[in-house]
# Entry
Amino acid sequence: MERHRVPADFMSFQGAPWLERDERVEEEQPDAVLDAMALEPGDIVADIGCGSGYYARRMARRVGDTGRVYCVDIQPEMLEIMAEHAAREGVTDIVPVLSETDDPKLPEGEVDWLILADVYHEMSDFEAMLAGMRRSLAPGGQVALLEYRVEDGTGDHLKADHAMSARQVLSEWLPAGFALVDLLEFLPGQHLFILKVAGDTTVPGAPIINVELLDAVDRGLVEASAVGDGETGVTVRVRNLTSDRLLVTMPAGMSFHGAEGDGDTRDMVSRRDAVIRLFDDAPHEWAVRSVGRQRTRRAPGGEDQLGMAAPSSVPALEALMHQMQAGTYTVADSPALYIPRLHGVEQAAVWVAQEDATYDELFAAVDEQRMPGQYALAFALVYCDRAGIDVTGTQMWRDRERIFGGLRDPGLTAWYQMKTTGQIQR
# Structure
């Protein structure tokens, strides 16, 4: 069940100082990113969603007086801030471009490199922007796309809709006429995608083949098996059987289950999209962020062989895992509200969905040191409700006053009022 991604709200120009924070050099390693792009003097480049010009100014120094940098943003105030930084630093050859949400306003067939640094997830009309960016590229032109990772948790400190999985990115870029040249994972928290226009043979090398795990197994492209101990998660042991470079993805909600009749094995479900680069024929161990479906099966310490099934095999969990990965909810006409991206909260949500247990039973089982148990269970109910599960019919709901009576989170309070009275107290 593929769901359309909801773009995040864009950062206001009032947040520009955050783009210039000192910590960004260590967190995002901009010089290493530009090294990977191998910019040359005379290149024509564009910084899409340039903000304060953090990357544009660095690129201008690399392409020199014979090159050109287009600094593209939808906010004129951002372009003014960029110009002030550039003037202070003595950086020239930057051309400000006030774009639209559906048009980068770049010349066609001219740009050697586009860079999008943590901005693509904010594009409200990304189909039109992808088409415009594709038209702007010269033969041999490429794109450097940076997005904080969903898969391994390094993006969990951000609001949930400000990080993207490789699966999400490629599901939008490849149908828009791009091909994946490389996926670099050397940065502390970000994917670095290198893309080109599909069919552009002036960029050397064959594109990476993007394939979903179960499809890759069915087609004989990889061999794979899954193991887990029911507590620390799932490991998929996988090997590329081809001579091609493969990028193998897995959707949130993937089901991992014990052998039929094995009542001790704790079945697992993936709580995030996952990705692995298979660029050689060596065996790889692929750690998948997951939670257990049952509270009581198997203590940690033994490794179980697990079967694998598509998310559609358990539709209720597929919907729930999508909500967990989205990480947001709304109440009436409120802006997006964000649920803390914590393992204990998401584990509790699965148990609410899978077991009609009491509040006391689930409270005793929740293990999340960063959040009191009643908050974890309250957010778990929100997740389940967003996934279409009738939480008012559960045993947990009988103890709703014990859960919500003492909470001080405005979003939870508003959600509870809506569920119990149908209206929010203003």
